[in-house]
Amino acid sequence: MMTVKAKIGSSVVIVVLAIIGLRLGQIAWQQQVTLNKLQAQEKQLIKNQATQPTKQLKTKQVEAKSTIVKASEKAKAFFQLAWEWSSGSDYQNRVKRIKKASLANQAVLSNSYLFPAYSGMADYIDLNGMISRVDQVVYYPQTTNDDETRGVVLVTVNAKHSRDVGNGETRFYQFKITYSSHDNQLTALDYIGRLAVNQSTDINTFNPYE
């Protein structure tokens, strides 16, 4: 039979082993939890790396779309101010109004086709009772990046005498334009050409541009 001392010693050993086993179990559990966390972080990192190029692409697409929309808005406002008038005074104040609206830089405002240097046009408009109206401005982008967009603008213009009961004359004009997102305005404009429809036999029914 075991003595009391032996029993106590045996019990101590059992308790010690139990404590050690419990401690080892805790350590193993903690290691497993840590491992699970690391694995989860690794999976998330891989997922983020995989989706990052897509996010960047979507961001660039949104930026490009925003640039195109702004260019279209600026072009529409610009041509409405440049090509709409019902008096000589309206005609003479076009550049001032465009400058005030910050729609285009000086290079654009120096375009000799839209803003001819010769005088007398205001009197001509008043004398003939000419009215010019922009019906539509459509921008067709060709190249776009983070800083600017370049493309073609199709401008539909109608003009007639104030006394004319008819529809006057409608023409379609094409311009190459550049819009700068940094300047938030048109920075280049070049006249391409025009197409006339419903052309009147009286050239005076239209605006003075030829």
Could you please describe the fold and organization of this structure?
The protein contains five helices and four strands. The protein is rod-shaped, with a radius of gyration of 38 Å. The chain has helices spanning 4-83, 88-92, 94-100, 106-109, 121-128, and strands at residues 130-144, 148-161, 169-180, 185-197. The protein has a four-stranded antiparallel β-sheet. 50% of the residues lie in helices and 26% in strands. It has 210 residues and is α+β, with helices and mostly antiparallel strands. The N and C termini lie far apart (127 Å).
Element pattern in H and E: HHHHHEEEE
Tally of DSSP β-strands: 4
Low-confidence stretches: 54-59, 200-210
Main sheet overview: 4 strands, antiparallel
The radius of gyration computed from the alpha-carbon positions, rounded to a whole number of angstroms, is 38 Å
Please work out how many helical segments DSSP would assign.
5
Alpha-carbon distance between the two ends: 127 Å
Name the strands of the widest sheet in spatial order: 1-2-3-4
Task: Give the helix proportion (percent range).
Answer: 40-55%
Structural class: alpha+beta
> Overall 3D geometry?
rod-shaped
Average pLDDT confidence is 77
β-sheet strand percentage: 25-35%
